[in-house]
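Model the whole thing, not chain by chain.
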Amino acid sequence: MLSISREDVEYVAALARLELTEQETQEYTEQLNSILGYAAMLERLDTNDVVPTAHAVPLHNVLREDQVRPSINHEKALRNAPDGEEGFFRVPKISLT
Amino acid sequence: MESVSIGKSISELHELLVHKDISSTELTKAYIKRIQSVDPTLQAYLTVLEEGALAQAAEVDQKIAQGQALKPLEGIPMALKDNMCTEGIRTSCASKMLDKFVPPYNATVTERLRAAGTILLGKLNMDEFAMGSSTENSYFAKTRNPWNLECVPGGSSGGSAVAVAGDEAAFTLGSDTGGSIRQPAAFCGVVGMKPTYGAVSRLGLIAFASSLDQIGPFTKTVKDNALVMNAIAGYDPQDSTSVPYETPDYTKFLVNDIKGLKIGIPREYFGEGIEPEVAKGIQAGIQTLIDLGAEVGECSLPHTEYAIPAYYLIATAEASSNLARYDGVRYGYRADSNDVLGMFKKTRAEGFGQEVKRRIMLGTYALSSGYYDAYYLKAQKVRTLIKQDFDKAFETFDVLLSPTAPTPAFKFGEKSADPLAMYLSDITTVPINLAGIPAISVPAGFVNGLPIGMQLMGKAFGEGSLYRIAYTFEQNTNYHTLKPNLSGEVLTGGSR
């Protein structure tokens, strides 16, 4: 399997929305290589004809009647928001650059 | 009366309450006093709810005064791992990210235990977001093993195991994604059950890896464990992965008889990495079961060695997706920044600890374009092979048996520097979560003064067979009656 470069780690951190310090970038590069190097043992298994398992106890199409039921009220649902105003979440400006 | 009541089993406490030998208020006060006395050392609790607990106890005492019948768990003080939502009570997941999070609703288990009349003493320490095997990853506190304060309690439900072992609650709940109930139960000398996936509702359990997470009880005895399962198990229409099934009365399986039951010993669980003294202790336990009439035979789960990489790819992939919700917008920690993308990145950088970030990185990588087939899909296929190993073994055997963990509790810092070494210590527990089957850890002896656990694995929804063997083993051994000696206090458990 390919080894993981520093650039790979920076790319994945960007995907995961994580700002990493220089030290973290170095550490994670080493550790991901070590962990995924170990995981390379999976290549030894021929799994061409094996169906993947997403859930150990498969349930399909869990449906219910579409009935109106009470839910958590607006004020309560927003109570944990770090910043809000008039029933909305407030966030810093969304820059498109 | 108060001081001698703590440390008793749920069923004993129930008798005391029914016969008015003690009130629920007195019992609750005794536990709070105990917490105040030992928790500065053990640090199992993140939140103690003295006022709320006493108010709940007063309600139960009123029922007793009115001559109403008591349910089996009514008036019994307990505590929850801090990843189970409690309305109006902080639920932190032991993370800076959720330091100030106060859920607007209850987890289904919280509701069910409330309906059962239990007293909620508080919320328990854990590895941050349940990621870890030692509880060292908590943002808040270092929980200590009551048998040796230099050792970890196991994890991720370390606080849940220690609260029971240290007599700080009559029972607790934990969650188990790759061993997080069974391994700390083994390290702390208590009984811990990971039920079948889908047997206990996950609604309100803060998600780590949704296809693997399952809630279960920590107790002093097997009977207590069955009593708690009776209260929490069963279909929940609000959890789409909850399985509709007829919940049995788990106490019906508590018979002191295992004659003719077929127990398989998977040889891979006694091989490389298993400390010889631990294997020896479990062999002695197997002999006890043979003497009691069980039919024991060797078997093989040939894909066991692949379980660790498959588990860590699947669990981290699911975690990276589940933890994407922590963005500083709707709840949880938020870092300051001029623009929203910077806010997301800084919030997650500052709000998550090292292990959580490492797993998000690993999971994001395994799911990223170009690597999905090689890692995530491959791991899911290997999961199928691991499940098939179990299916095959259960064609011959009713239950499988192994050590719960390869070693007894290890020292603080011993494995925290090397993530892979920490992951490898989960080899005896993660295959069970991948297969979705139930497994229980029961006290099975001591190695160097530290408890070891025997793990019994069953067929899906076969908790009954596990309880039957565990109960029989317990009735014919005395490990569960031994208690750690904390701060010089004399605590004998002989009353069981």
